[in-house]
Amino acid sequence: MFCNRIKHLSIGQRLHPIKNHVAAYCSNIQAIDMSYDVFESKNPDNNLSPLIIMHGLFGSKQNWRGVGRALASKMNRKVITVDARNHGNSPHIDDHNSKSMAADIVQLMHRLNFRKVSILGHSMGGRTMMYFALKYPEMVDKAIIADISPISIPGDISAMGKILLAMKNINIPQDVPMAAGRQLANAELIKVVPSKETIDFVLLNLRKADDGKYYWIHNVDALYNNMSGFTKYGETIKGLPPFKGPVMFICGKNSSYVDPNHWPQIQNIFPNSEIHWLDAGHLVHFDQAAKFIELTVGFLSK
Q1: Mind telling me which Gene3D superfamilies this protein's record contains (predicted)?
Q2: Mean pLDDT on 31-53
């Protein structure tokens, strides 16, 4: 028995249902087949739970290649990096929220025949993985959450909506070469984004098709239309029992995404959790890559 909301995507890819032994979870959620990469060491230990990593908003599995490769080699554990829906090479679809992205993780586990996994998520991906652990605790061994909180989000989340709106409205002539096209996009984004680091990160997703048209690899319309959901995470996890498995939060001291004063509330949701503060911004896995990998390896190896 499958979930019955199945249709074809406009790009020709099929929406897949969650299988029957978790059908009670899926209601009307449409699960997709995410694009993913697998990293393995030369001597993988199949007794260790695989680690699935999901990136944040505007990111992709490509951003986690170095971390994924390093973790696989240091732990002899299979590591899978994914493109979340509406990002990278994964299908585009109107729905975009933690519930639907968690359903995509379930779908991936079925595809790869995984019964239980460890999970790592950054920012948007972190909220997806927190929901996944709370909703499907029997499928989760350990969880690592990078610089995001289940309690609140920073005030500058509104800036994300401005970035997406600017992306929607950028119009680059087809006869403009890629370097100049990036400059034009940069000029528009800088009007709403003061951070060069953020602009450079967003511009990684600008592409030029064979016919000369410029496009974003993200589904900008879906992300923009679902931005309000990012402010309602408390409603998303309301009523779910605490996840009692091991959880590690890795946060940036120079980031506003996790309020230290919220730690007691976070521990009410994840009672078996620990937190580490690194000298980093929101991209904690970039700013302190070696320490991030060290903490992750140590936590998963306990």
Answers
A1: alpha/beta hydrolase
A2: 94
